[in-house]
Amino acid sequence: MFFSPVHLIYPVREECSMTIAPHAPVMVCSSNQYTMNILAFSGLRRYGARNTGFIPGEKEAAFFSAAQQHPLSCVDGKLKLPLTFPQEDCYLCELFVNGESAEKFEIYALESDLFCLQPYKGDNHLHSCMSDGKDSPMYMAAASCRRGYDYCVITDHRYFEPSLIAKDFFIKTGVDFLVIPGEEVHSPQNRVHIINLGGDESVNDWWRNKEPEYRAAVSKEMENMPEPMSDADRYSAAASQVIFDKIRSVNGVSILCHPCWIRPYGFSETEDVTDYLFDHKRFDALELIAGGAYEMGTQMQLSYYHERESMPVLGNSDAHACFGDKLEPGNYTILFASDITVDALKNAIRNKMTVAGNEKKLYGDYRLVKYAYFLMRHFYPEHSHQRDVLGANMIRYASSLGKADADLTSVKPSTLFAQLRYSE
Known about the structure:
Layout: E1 3-5, E2 9-11, E3 16-22, E4 34-40, H1 58-63, E5 70-71, E6 73-75, E7 78-83, E8 89-97, E9 100-110, H2 112-115, E10 118-126, H3 137-146, E11 151-154, H4 161-171, E12 178-180, E13 182-185, E14 194-197, H5 203-209, H6 211-222, H7 231-249, E15 253-256, E16 262-263, E17 266-267, H8 271-279, E18 285-290, H9 295-306, E19 313-316, E20 322-323, E21 326-327, E22 332-337, H10 342-350, E23 354-357, E24 362-364, H11 366-378, H12 380-399, H13 416-420
Parallel strand pairs: 2-9, 10-11, 11-12, 15-18, 18-19
Antiparallel strand pairs: 1-3, 3-7, 4-5, 4-8, 6-7, 8-9, 10-22, 13-14, 14-15, 16-17, 20-21, 22-23, 23-24
């Protein structure tokens, strides 16, 4: 590119000044005439007035039209254009020099609630060698960073401790990567797989150490279940509700995992159990897409999800090993949060600020998916490169059990987005 915008993300309905920078060997010359055409990707919205109720008028229609070329001023070797974006959207920009097309690029304008948030990509479902995986918790975390992620959740079957080991191993280094405590909960007589994400303590330890308390809670739950189900399904559904409530009580986010996972005997959990859990929803988020080997089940889950009310959706790899030094290919989640802390990411999930995705497709709320595709084109390539560099150093550090002299602090991928967001 010979020219590119200094900022890619702008606020809606606020006066801004777009700055366009030249790239060597090109220089801005005051004797040239610079103009720009800007179009709203979705067209100017009047019907329905999505998001805010603001309806663009003739002024906005004239400004963002194919026939209008706006003159840019030359300031300190850069090009400037004052403007106000009327709606949340992607905008297609074409720069002309002396009437000839010189560059095309895209920018995005956001409503204030989304403009103040930052995208964080991660995996909420990983297993290590401390349950049925092949690599250490630290290695899985490092491989997640190499995969381009900002955070990961180690969720070993029945054990919370591995996630704490990985978290404590890296937190002392100051590395720009977040390991969130977690576990996959498997309570007695319950075939439903449930994740405790970011809880303050283990729910597996609770039912193991206080099984009479767990079973009493399940029995009480079953008393309020008049729906016709088999005894086994009734118990499994009741046990799941008890686990969801327990996860919430320890400040965790409960995730219903792969309800359409296909096993040799059929679905991992029966459809009656799945229907009951959706009809009497007490889980916080749905693992909408999971793993690389669940394609048929994933398509069924997608169809099932579209029949239900809107809810937070997550994409997870359910990885049990690394592919080389990177996490095996799979699914991920983009969370839109105020910062990269455990509490902020949990709040993003609870507030439905989530997109589930993989290298080919994104799922979730239309508004967020539309924005996330823009980020996939213009933010994540460089972000993933920086994560790969940092993750390689984390791999070296993890492989040596902390003895290698690895640079874990000079690369800060989480600061990249702030540089792209408009500020005066």
